[in-house]
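COMPLEX REQUEST
Ligand: S-adenosyl-L-homocysteine
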Amino acid sequence: MAPEPDERLPLLSLDAAALEARVVALGGRPFHARIVREGVLQRGVLDYAELTSLPAALRERLAATTPILGGEEVERRTAPDGATKLLIAFAGKPGAEAARDLVETVHIPPRDPTSGKGATLCVSTQVGCPVGCPFCASGLAGLVRNLEAWEILEQFLRGRALGALSRAVVMGIGEPLLNLAALETALTVVRDDLGLGARRITVSTVGFPERLRRAARARPRFQLAISLHSPDQEQRDELVPAMAGVPVEDVLDAGDDWFEQTGREVTYEVVLLHGVNDTERHAERLAARLRGRRCTVNLIPYNPVGETPYRRPPRAAVDAFQARLAEAGVVATVRWSRGVESDAACGQLRISRT
Ligand code: SAH
Ligand code: SF4
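STATUS: Structure written out below.
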């Protein structure tokens, strides 16, 4: 049933047909809906007042009933390195404990501002996370709920307003494979209307094998990164609790399958925790698992999170780990995260307010 035009609905929750119906119900013409979509999605308009080719009365009715942004920015923090973290509040589900749900989006400008490249945006897919990795702030309180597709899309619009985007990483709060349908819906609009296609978007997941195999067959709109963290079964079970009991080899096989299905290499991510999984023996066992597979490794030195007992490894340990992998023929890059000063780096995203 079509919603009543006076029912408040966020613009981004309406597809082209639903928006057209709404615009007509509000007294506009079908082509006015196209002006709205094109203005908001392609040109980045965030205020109906700027759509001067619409009749003023329609602009007012849209503003009153169909907000372009459904959430509210409750905090903005920019780190000395230029990364900006937005804390965004969406309405909590009716009957839920919290009246509003907080997620975070991080806008990371290019290191070299003269490079002509745009920024990278890091987006969230869930409120909280059910996986519970002990080194990550996002999972401390468990899962509150999945984000809606429009709430994921809204993060892209808010991020783009801080500066043009050339890449996005789905590495904010939440486990993307547990909310894949909404993510795919949002990424379709991101590709078609915002112009960021599959090669420019990386989704990071703990890698549920069956879900990965299904996703690989559904023409995914993104590159894949799998958070592996350890070559050892027992240790991975501890570091990625929701995956406990899922054989590491099954995760790697699903990664191979991804490459076969999509033709795109997988990146394996390893958060390096000093004295836990950063020894040269770990590097050797990791190399033994990965040798011969079409993949690269991304090493992420741990970013301190107040409540956890872990430490960031010294640079020498990170270099040695990387060198061991290289000797065994496994290519690894190191990601010294940015945004650390504003608590916006990987794993530092947290529900800091309610
Ligand atoms: N849930 C997904 C995506 C979000 S986390 C996943 O886990 O892959 C994105 C990346 O940040 C993951 O590789 C995760 O392991 C890493 N990460 C989490 N906490 C971190 C921390 N404190 N320091 C460094 N990286 C961290
Ligand atoms: Fe969830 Fe990823 Fe954090 Fe683990 S690292 S708790 S999967 S967001």
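REMARKS: The first strand starts at residue 72 and ends at 78. Residues 248-262 form the longest helix (15 residues).
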